[in-house]
Each structure stands twice: as structure tokens, then as C-alpha cells.
Amino acid sequence: MSSSLEGFPEGQVQFDLERGAASVRVDSSVYPLEALYGAAYVFIDRAYVLLDRAEGDAYRVWISPKKPAAEDALRALLGEFANELLSCAWRAQIAKDSRSIIEQATTRALGGARGAPSLDDLESFDFSDESFEDPLGIAMSWEEKYGKKKGAEGSEAKAAPAGAEAAAAEGEPTP
Amino acid sequence: MTELRFHRDLYDGQAVDEAIKTFDRYATIERAEEDTHWVVRLSADAPSRERRVAGELANFALGLTIRRSKSAT
Amino acid sequence: MNLLQIKKPSTTFAMPFRHRVVAGKHLLTNTEGAFVLLDDAEFRLFAEGTVERGSTLWTRLVERNFVRAEVDLRAIEERIRTRKRFLDYGPNLHIAVVTLRCNETCVYCHASRANMDATYTDMTKETAEKTVDLILKSTNPSVTIEFQGGEPLANFPIVQHITEYALKQNEKIGKTLEFTMVSNLSLMTDEKLAWLVANKVQICTSIDGPQHLHDKQRKLPTKAAALPLALTGEGASPSAHLAARHWIGRINDEYGKMGLDTSLYHVEALLTTTRDTLPLWKDVVDTYVSLGCKALFLRPVDPFGFADRSGGRVEYPRKEYLEFYRSAVDYMLELNRQGVQILERFAAIFLTKILGGEDPNFLDIRNPCGAAIGQVAYNYDGKIFTCDEGRMLHEMGDDTFLIGEVGKTAYRDLMGHETVRALALASNLDAQPDCVNCTYQPYCGVCPVHNHKSQGSIFGRMRESTLCAVHKGIQDYLFEKIASGDPHVLETFKRWTTVRDRTHFLQTCAL
After folding, report:
1. Which among A56-60, A92-96, A124-128, C284-288 has the top mean pLDDT?
2. Which residues of C fall within a CB distance of 8 Å from A153?
3. Average pLDDT of A5-26?
4. Which of residues 56-85 of A touch C (CB under 8 A)?
5. Which of A2, A29, C441, C499 is 20 to 30 A from C41 (CA-CA)?
6. Chains B and C, touching by 3 or more CB pairs within 8 angstroms
7. What percent of chain C has pLDDT over 90?
8. Are strands C142-148 and C176-182 parallel, antiparallel or unpaired?
9. Measured between CB atoms, does A42 come within 8 Å of chain B?
10. What number of other Cβ atoms are within 10 A of residue C416's Cβ?
11. Which ranges of A16-134 would DSSP assign to H, the alpha helix?
């Protein structure tokens, strides 16, 4: 286990080449949990990601490429994660700061595209459904719902066998 | 044997349970509870398979947790 | 100029603005999309709030709403409304993939074409009609149906049927219809051409540059039967370039015979820039001019379809692309100076926003992007995608951008689909790190599908995005040219922003 990686502050990372894994300490006063979740999620198609608490007011993120990787590749992956984390943190802040502008543009765009409902539309309208009131929340749940690079109908139920099949492909028959 | 530790502040317990349920066909999985973590111990025939099942289980639990945290807000 | 030289920045003089140094000048843009270029001394006066009232600088700043005390809020509101006019209507562009079959094999094929015997990838008549029925539900009073493939001429009866069926159905609806076809032209015949011209279907093709480059990248393995041998070349490998060149000439002749102004009505062609294209910028421009094209779109290769697989062979650092772009457009400006009319499409799109204060509604560079709310792609099997790029990813096994199926999904459900909402949000530059502070924000746009493919998230990270590098690099170039003040360049740029409608192709019917 090594605790230094070029480009990262001393003690910020742990690096285990034998296991093909690296971890980074994330200060929770700088990076909100939603940013951590957002960044972690972006990587689960190419790496295994595990979150934990670290000493002090911090998180620790373990990340391990699905395909074995050399030190350079591991460093690049961790670096990319750090960039994504920064991007997610800033985006979360922007979403808060500019919420009304963003919602206004989105509502105008979607309203213009959908148009007014016809009588047929009203007849089949499900009044129990929630109205469009939280576009930011909806946007974030979209990727969560469909999984990365899966079919639009690929809900969590579909995502599960994908990982399971991958595991089964290690050589044993699928039960 | 691989041990996965899911911190209760960061993971939804039901998400971890569902992940275990989804992957228990592919490895021998035991679960334990600690004050701060849900602990999942996992073993499979081959080391590469064990690493893969553990990793996919962790990703699955994370994905479900994120989804639930968003739908709760 | 070191910004630290500004001793006492004023917090009350200026309206909110974004700043970038271009060609040694300070480029400022504001929310409404107005810009000014200031030298160091002018910028210092502006930043310190000491611009003399009534001076030339004062007038320039006030006219463009950079001075808080003189701001014209009504004008700002009106200009923003004008720029965002496209938000009030639904999709205008409807891409119908009538088949995946194609007789050419392109090294970068974004569409993941199928072999000519794969007739199961032909759109059926039933799917075609359901597609048209859905298209005509768009809230946009103008609708363009673009035939794509594969090679649309490989399933020509469906091209005909969609056109005729749409015109017939539209008699009850009264939209303005336009039809375009993107074709390699090598399966064209006199009969097909006569029908296309008679039915006012615009024709667009692909030209990769000079013959040797085009034929290297676009293989035509089977002989185009309708072409004389002299036009397709000798030997086992006929020339895709000669075939396209032949038909471009024929089509343009037809327009001329009809009395149409051929400076406006002619075949347009699209370029896909590969690594091999980069040193050939002059040959590319000369080829387009020799074909009678008035526009050249210097599009970089995208990471979709076969280009993803053959990336190592066709890709290149975007810095090299931007050098290519600068050389090519410099040369085009020189040709314009000599009286040759040729414009670069990226430049025209950005300049229309920069100089014209209008948004030309180019769906890949608008804010938010046109995914579903500006364009919809219909696959041969009836599957519906947010855009052509989303459909390309489907062919690579990624259904993220699938939003429905013709005959099953209602129009309003498509537009209200959570994927569509997510893309509208992800491509909103006010919500995007980096873009939110970027000087080029009023003129730019991002592509969430590109982000998803290249960076793993629909939001992407712009600092590492090749698309962002291209957009920024091109706008840097344009503002450098504007800053140079060369009257000829400015006159040419102004001309490039002039959109002349091709009214001949608009098909309306009175209700």
C-alpha cells in the first residue's frame, strides 16, 4: 500500500497496485454528498466504487478499474474521478444559484414542444401523477433510473442481471 | 474472502439487502451489522470471480442508494 | 495586460459581463449576447468605471447594454426573447432512417450501416405512415423530414411513400413541409432524380474532399449501374467520388433548367474531417468550389458508429483540427476576396448569433440543445430517439436515448419523456460548469449525447471535451478576425449571416 501518487497531495490517496485499487480522501466540507454520489455514479460502468467515511469530516472513495490496470491507468482514473467530483460539486452549486433561470428555460422549452393537450390527451390523463415541478431532481434520477449505457427501458431490474451476468461470465453457468 | 463495508451514513440498508439478494447466486455471501456499517463477506471459487461479484455488488448497492436518495428529496 | 493593474474596480458601473482576451483585446459579452472588444486602456476605464460620459467608448458600451446606469431592460428582454424564439415550438427536424443498408463502406460511418442484403433494416410502409402521423403532431408549424440511412436510395419506394403520404395528410393540417435527403448519390438514376425534383425533395450529399481522399475513405464496392464507366473509374474499385460528382452536376443542371437561381438552389455537401483530411485543407476547399457548392461544413469526426472502432486511424488532437480549420477558412476568405462565394458553416452559425443577434436554430449548437424538442430521429423499425446521435448510439448497443416507438408512444409523451427533460437540463449552459462563466455562452451549445459517449455522463466536463475545444477554438478564430477590423473580412462575415430561404422547397397547403 502506497500513500502517494503524483499530482495528489501527500496522504490524500491510498494506492494498492497489487489489488488494482486506489482511494482518495474527500473533504465533506468542500464536496457535498450529492456531488460525491454524482461523481461516483459516472464511473460504475468502468470501475468498482465503494464509499466510506474517513477520519475527520471526510469521505473515502475506493475505486478499482473493472479491467486490470497499470499504475499509470489507475492514476489517470483517480485523476478523472477528482475532476468529475469537482465538476459535480460546482454543478450542484450552480443549480442552486441559477435554479429559477434553469427551470424557466426548461419549462418554456418543454412546454413549447409539448403544446396544449388535446381532448384525447385529457381523457387519458393520469391525474394521480405528479406534475412537473422539480426538473433538477428529475434529471438526476434519470441516469440513476436507467443505468449507464443501458436501454431506456433498462430499469434497475434490468441493470441487475447485467452485473450478475458479467459475474456469471467468469466461468460458471447462470443459475 | 472479500469483505465489503457499507457505511450507514452513505448507503441505504435496503439497497445493500437488494444487492445481496441479486448477487447471492454467484457467491457465498454473509451479512453482519456493526454500529456504523453493514458488512458483507463474500467468497467465490475463483479470486477473479470473487473480485467481480464483490465489485458489481458494491456498484449495485451504490446505484440503488443514489436513486433512493434522489427520489426521497 | 495584467488585471491586477486595475486598481479600483467599480462594482456599480458595469452590467454583468464575461471576459476573455482574444488577439490582445478584451472581449466582453453579456447576457443578451452583445459584445465589445476593448484595448487595454479602454478596458481599464470600463473596469474602473471612469469612462467619460458622451465619449465614443461610452456610446459603444451604452449601445450594447454594458453600462448599468444606462441599461435598457426592455431591449435586453426583447433580444433574449428573439434569440430563444426556437423554444416556443416543438421539433422542426424529423430524421427518418428509411434503411440501414448502404452500398458504400465508409471508414468513419457514424450510422453503422448494414450490408445491401440486410433488407430487414428497410422501413416498412406501415412504419413509415405511423412515423409521418407522429411527425405531423409536432407543435412546430414548419416541419422538415430528412431521409437518412444507410443510403435512402436503397429503399427509395419508402422515400416516395413518406413524401406522398405526408403531403396528403398535411392537407388536413396545413403545416409548411420540407423534404431533404442525405445520399451518397451512387444509387441515383434518371427516374429517381426526376421524381425527387418534381416532388421538391432537396438533396444533400457527402464529399470528403479530393477524389483520392474521398475514394480512400468511402469505398464503393459494387458498380453503380446507372453510371457510365468513364464516370466511375476503371478496375475493380469504382470511384464513389466520381459518382457523386456526376450526380451533383446533373441535379444542379435540373435546377437550372427549372429556372431556379443556382446560386441558391444546388446540391449541398457535407465533409467529415478525418486525420487524412487535415493536411488537405486547400484541396478540400477547391473541391467544394469546383462542385458548385456555396457552403462547406468543416465537421470533425464524431465518436459514433465505425468511427469509434477505427478511432485510432481517423481521430486527431483537436489542436490539429483547429489549425486545419484556420487554414481552410483563411483560404475561403481569400477566395471570397477574389469574388468566389463559399462560406464555412460553423462560422456562419456562430456569426449569425454574434453579429446578427439571431439564433439560426442549428440544433447541435443551441442552448438548450435540440434533442427531441428540436429534432427527433425515427429508426427503420419505428424506434424513436432524441436525435440522430442518440440513434447512432443505439446501433452501437446503447439505448439511453430511446424515447418511444411509432404507433405506441403519443407525441406529448415523447416530449414529456424524462430523458428529454434530462437532456434539456444537461444542455442548458446556465447549469453547466465552465459554460456558465464562458464568454462564448450566448453563442454556444453542448451535446449531451457526445458527453455521454465520450465522458460517461450527459453533463460532461467541458474542459476535457473535444466538442468544447472545437467550439471555443472556432469562436476564438472568428473574434480574432473581427478584432482585426479588416473591412473585407467583416463584409464577408456579414454576408455569411444572411439566410436566403429556399422557398421553392417549402410545401404548404391552404386549409
Report:
1. C284-288
2. 399, 402
3. 83
4. 83-84
5. C441
6. no
7. 80
8. parallel
9. no
10. 17
11. 33-42, 71-97, 99-114, 119-123
Which residues of chain A neighbour C398 with C-beta distances below 8 Å? 149-150
Topology of domain A1-97 in CATH is: Alpha-Beta Plaits (3.30.70)
Rounded Cα distance between C295 and C312, Å, is 29
| Per-residue confidence band for A125, with pLDDT thresholds at 50, 70 and 90 | low
Domain boundaries, chain A: 1-97, 99-113+133-169
pLDDT higher than threshold 50 for residue A136: no
| B67 touching chain A per CB within 8 A | yes
pLDDT tens digits for range C382-397: 999 999 999 999 999 9
Nearest to A168 among B26, B46, B60 (CB): B26
Q: Which pLDDT score, from 0 to 100, does residue C237 have?
A: 67
CA–CA min distance A130, chain B (Å): 13
What residue of C is the nearest CA neighbor of A94? C431
Number of domains in chain B: 1
pLDDT at A10: 76
pLDDT, mean of residues C473-495: 97
Q: With bands split at pLDDT 50, 70 and 90, how would you rate the model's confidence at A123?
A: confident
**How far is Cα C462 from Cα C432, in angstroms, rounded to an integer?**
8
The CA distance from A128 to A168, in Å, is 41
Q: Where are the domains of chain C?
A: 3-83, 85-389
The two beta strands, C142-148 and C105-106, are: unpaired
Distance (Å) from the C-alpha of residue C73 to the closest C-alpha of chain A? 17
Which among B10, B36, B56 has CB closest to A163? Answer: B56
- Pair C388, C363: CB distance under 8 Å: no
Contact between A140 and B26 using a beta-carbon 8 Å cutoff: no
Question: What is the secondary structure of C190-233 as a DSSP string?
Answer: HHHHHHHHHTTEEEEEE--SSHHHHHHHEE--S--TTS-HHHH-
Give the one of A91, A110, A154 whose C-beta lies nearest to C424's C-beta. A110
Chains A and B: how many Cβ contacts under 8 Å? 93
- What ipTM did this prediction achieve? 0.93
Check CB contact under 8 Å for A105 and C461: no
Quickly count: other Cβ atoms within 10 Å of residue A34's Cβ.
18
Residue C69 has pLDDT above 70, yes or no: yes
Which grid cell sits at C170?
398535411
**Number of alpha carbons in the 13 Å side-chain half-sphere of residue B27:** 32
- Interface touch A110/C88, C-beta < 8 Å: no
pLDDT band at B69 (very low <50, low <70, confident <90, very high): confident
Q: What is the phi/psi pair of residue B46, to 5°?
A: -110, 145
What is the tens place of the pLDDT at every residue in C160-197? 999 999 999 999 999 999 999 999 999 999 999 999 99
CB contact under 8 A, C425 and A139: yes
B52 Cα to chain A: minimum distance (Å):
6
- The answer to whether B and A touch (≥3 CB pairs < 8 Å) is yes
Residues with Cβ within 8 Å of C407's Cβ and at least 6 positions away in sequence, in order, are C127, C130, C382
Q: Which domain holds residue B35?
A: 2-72
Q: What is the pLDDT of residue C412?
A: 94
Contact A137 B73 (CB under 8 A): yes
Q: Test A164 with B26 for CB contact under 8 angstroms.
A: yes
B9 with A53: Cβ contact below 8 A: yes
Per the DSSP assignment, residues forming a β-bridge with C22 are C25
* Contact between residue C182 and residue C204 where contact means Cβ atoms under 8 Å apart: yes
> CB-based contacts of C239: which residues, under 8 Å, 6+ apart?
C211, C215, C220, C231, C232, C233
In order, the DSSP letters of A113-173 are: HH-S--HHHHHT--TTSPPS--HHHHHHHHHHHH-TT--TT--HHHHHHHHHHHHHTTTS-
- A153 shares contact with chain C (CB less than 8 Å): yes
Stretch A35-61: mean pLDDT: 94
- Check if CATH label 2.40.50.140 holds for domain C85-389: no
